[in-house]
Structure formats: structure tokens, C-alpha cells
Design goal:
Layout: H1 10-22, H2 33-82, H3 86-135
Helix pairs in contact: 2-3
Length: 136
């Protein structure tokens, strides 16, 4: 309503607009672009390192599973040569399946823990960046 031009209250409206315009903004002043760029680059670098670590973890899991399969295959062949009866073989295979299932569950837990740790670290980084922005 600052643009209303009436005879009597014109001065009041104009002065009210001047007060609104002259009030300092409650938001923090805009930061220089370099600060935003530095913090964005810092966050991107963190995400890149986290992705690399997750890839390395998954690669280590694949390698461990290959070794597990090779070990188990050799042991299974040896066991089956020595034990030709069905019930012993079934027990062995059920044990193998349980061991493999436990290994894969451990892998999933490790990946989930890594993701959760990364999320916590990212939130801490963002909080630190926000604190630095407020301090400046």
C-alpha cells in the first residue's frame, strides 16, 4: 500500500514504506561466490571419496566371495569323494548354504553401516559449513 496517493495520509504511508525499506534484513548478507564454491567443492570431494570407499568395499566383498566359493568348492569335492551317502551330503550342503547366507548378510550389514557412517559424516560437514557461514 505504499503506492496509494491520497491527500491526507500520503506522508504516513510514505514514511511507513521508508521504515520498511530502511530496516536491516534479518537474513545474513549474501556470501561471496568463492565461499559458496569452496564449500560446494568440499562437499563434492567428500561425496567422491565416500563413493570410492563404497566401491572399494564392494570390490573387497566380491573378492572375498570368490575366495569363499573356491575354498568351498574344493572342500565340497573332497567331502563328496569321501562321503557318497545322501544324508551326509545334504547336511554338508545345508551347512554351506547357511555359511554363504551369513557371509552375504554380513556384507549387507557392512554396506549399510558404511552408508550410515557416510550420512553422519556428511551431516557433520554440512553443519560445520553452516557454522562457518554464520561466523563470516
Amino acid at each position: 500500500q505504499c503506492g496509494v496517493f491520497r491527500a491526507g495520509p500520503i506522508l504516513v504511508l510514505i514514511s511507513a514504506c521508508a521504515v520498511l525499506i530502511a530496516q536491516p534484513s534479518l537474513a545474513s548478507p549474501p556470501l561471496p561466490a568463492s565461499i559458496h564454491t569452496e564449500q560446494r567443492n568440499e562437499l563434492k570431494a567428500f561425496e567422491h571419496r565416500a563413493d570410492l570407499e563404497l566401491r572399494e568395499l564392494r570390490a573387497a566383498h566380491k573378492a572375498e566371495e570368490r575366495e569363499f566359493n573356491a575354498r568351498e568348492r574344493d572342500a565340497r569335492h573332497l567331502f563328496f569323494k569321501e562321503n557318497t551317502e545322501g544324508p551326509k551330503r545334504r547336511e554338508y550342503v545345508q551347512g554351506f548354504l547357511a555359511r554363504r547366507k551369513a557371509m552375504r548378510a554380513r556384507f549387507k550389514q557392512e554396506v549399510a553401516k558404511k552408508k550410515q557412517d557416510t550420512l553422519t559424516q556428511r551431516q557433520a560437514l554440512e553443519a560445520a559449513q553452516a557454522a562457518r557461514r554464520l561466523a563470516q
